[in-house]
Amino acid sequence: MRRTGRGDLRTMRLTVTRDLLAGLLFLGLGGGAALMSSSYRFGTILRMGPGFFPVTLGLMVALIGLVVTARAIVAPDGSPPVGTIRLRPVLLVSASVVVFALLVERLGLAAAVAALVVVGSLAGPGLTVRGAVAKVVVLVAIAVAIFVYGLAIPFKVWPW
């Protein structure tokens, strides 16, 4: 029987595309979430336990990741290959989340959101002082309106 595919499996090369990396990310996150929440009681469909939703959601995310990964392997032409990975934006956005987590209890929601916005804004090109101040004012107002007044979460808004 003759193969009608793209070639022999021994000579095929795997192109690392954005879809492949996204699929692997979803597969890992979904599988990890399902695995971590599998220690909770699952229950049944009629009497769901505390593990039902996180396990089911994790498996669904992993299934989506599996489909995206398989499509990227079978037909890699649909997604552009991954170029160079710029570490500065990744590190600065991650650092902004860490800064927020470290400051929210000590300095309050307003200062933590302001720090998050400023550090996160450094990741992108074209940062201006006027733009950063505008983002800080708008996002602090939105965060306070949603979390403190809308959801009544007892966040300390200001450091004093």
UniProtKB/TrEMBL annotation:
Domain DUF1468: 21-155
InterPro entries: DUF1468
Ranges annotated as spanning the membrane: 20-40, 52-73, 85-103, 109-129, 136-155
Stretches assigned to coiled coil: none
Keywords: Membrane, Transmembrane, Transmembrane helix
Pfam families the record matches: TctB
Listed name of the protein: Tripartite tricarboxylate transporter TctB family protein
